[in-house]
């Protein structure tokens, strides 16, 4: 399972080919994507579709949301300040940030199924049972609800489909998810640094007190506020920057995903993600999360490795940290 | 992975459906088989095809070939006496054994790919590279060389295809193989007692000195001769009869496979097999062995469990013990 090699596919695999890859459980770069027209994700196209609808934008001083930060002599798991704004205002800020030296880093990362949720694939639910609409519902005509070969291989629809819009200042701290992740870049590029579940020990996970960036009053700069309840801690890797300070004796898989390409990121793999801007100073991506098979040897193996982590929270879904 | 339940399919699965089952890695009973006509495996049909060609028949006093036996105060891994005879003579002996109280137990179990071998699927090999012909080559017109949905799912031909002919006196001692096993009964029935790889600890494997049944002179009864080299030992479960003396706290999966039905036995599963005669006093089966995926989490998991066994020989392919 170790080694820094990874498979590259020229085109989208068949369901059968993909299922074989799922069970080999190594990352795969696919030089195609399920998205029909990348051009449909231009600023103009996004603005035209979203109109004046407000969306949740994560804001931090550093671009390190849902990450370990040092503040007032302490270490915290810092969650971003979330503010509502229009797509127009958001994209304008990103555009100007590319030129000016903006003070805050914005990231559209509301990955609660911000385009499609599991419930959207369940016709049996009546209206009352459905959650509030996805914030980016108006983009559904350009975001494929499913990745056909994955849905067929895993015999289920996605659990969540999300759009991500940010810039090179935003970094995703290293973590692992209990989902099969299919990740397509539509503008700019994403740089993944990946470690297999077997290298969980190198993540040196610790329990961190939660904190959140808050804005004391409109116009004021963000401040980090530790959570009132000092016992509310979350297990998180203390490996802050594996690219600058790589763990010894470990072997990351480094994959850059360009616009129009797709990464298959197997469940349980640790990932650290940086991004590159397109010519307008933005990076745009879509990911489809599918539940992993919760039985059989692969699940047992991940559970076993998870158990080894001590607090047994490697893939806890309770912690609602927003992370791609 | 534990529990005594198992999936039953009314019909042969698609390649995609089968691959999902492989990765759940639990036994599955399929109420169909890849064999076109069961009638083609009648005594008459087998005799007509095999003519006077000689075949290897395993003979034991007890029906327990490749099993732990107690002899002269010692415990041995007893391999059968192998003698050459014609299909006619062999089937006659089985037929009469059903009525009379025969002294020896005969079993056609030469599972070296006695119908097809991996080399038969490799057109690149020239004649010199090919092994001697399979002993039952003349039955190839009635034994399917491959199970289409398995070959497509695993993207490879079988490693070996074997025909098995015996009677209810023959029992297969519990063991595990590093192969995906697809097992079709064509006459009589087979009774499988199965334990998942996670229950390897219950097998209480020990190292046993090898011994072989030999016939001192023609017509003489078989005697068990311990191997000259007392250091030539083989790791084998000391769990001799899990049906009569089941291990405590373990949960076997018991599956009876009737004529015309097929069992998928996942790689690494421990299996103990008894058989029932058809009306002529025989049990006939075919199995297709496919190499398992030797990378990814499932392989890691089996390797991990294997390692736990101490001698690390759980799936050793060196020991050439004949076992279905």
Automatic annotation (TrEMBL), chains A, B:
Annotated ranges, domain JmjC: 116-305
Gene3D superfamilies reported for this sequence: Jelly Rolls
InterPro entries associated with the record: Cupin_8, JmjC_dom, RmlC-like_jellyroll
Source taxon at top rank: Eukaryota
Signal sequence annotation: none
Protein name: Clavaminate synthase-like protein
Species of origin: Sistotremastrum niveocremeum HHB9708
